[in-house]
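Figure 2 data, in text form.
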Amino acid sequence: MAALKDCDYLFKVFLVGPFQCGKSSLARRFLDNTFTEPYGTPLGISFKIKAVDLEGKRIKFMVFDGPGQERFHSLTAAYYKSVHGLLLIFNLTSTDSFQQIDGYFEDVRDRAGKGTPMVLVGTMSDMAKERKVTYNEAMQKAKAYGVTYIEVSSKTDDNVSKAFLTLAKDIMHRAVAKPGTTTPAAPAPAPAAKKPADPEERKESPASVKAERDALLKRIEAIEKVVRLLGADGSLLADNINKICAAPKGNGVVVDAEGNVKLTE
């Protein structure tokens, strides 16, 4: 990863949580200050950069949002070992979401390492009438994990920035990242912890799942190549990454020596 000269720290942050926990809505609110209701399943790993000022330092967040369904688990888990911090996300209006978060925490802890900074985030705090998880229940879980707990509403923008900045402070204070760089990769991941089955999980053949996973991995490699080649060129970087993420499912992706993206049939 090339150093970004216009920042003091570069933090790679992954959003983790079960299907329809509100990860994508949280990411869009923080990154673009827009809101959309949760829907469907993201196609692969989406990625975007945002710069903020914190404690006199310029920080760039590389925010990765992956699909929450079990069939994509091996794809998202590959990222855990190289992140600087994670937001562990569940939906306050769903007891299933709250119960499933234990499996995600165990998996992240095993793969990313016990010292990796994390914040437990309960989404949809504005939906008081539909709420199924109490504040005390969530706090008890956060204490058991040894992490901070924050409730957010992507719809009203309540505590969204606080969640990301709390994580950033933890990363800085632990000195996980060096100025302008990413940290070294963690040791090889341990075997995945078994998580509760996703009730929304679609049953597909192993061959189709493997083909989809391989295609998504190729797009992730293309994103990483664009970041490496373009470095701090923010607008061009975002344009090319968006082109990769928005490409039709059947198209291949080619990145030239200048970091420009071309789609192939």
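Caption note: The radius of gyration is 18 Å.
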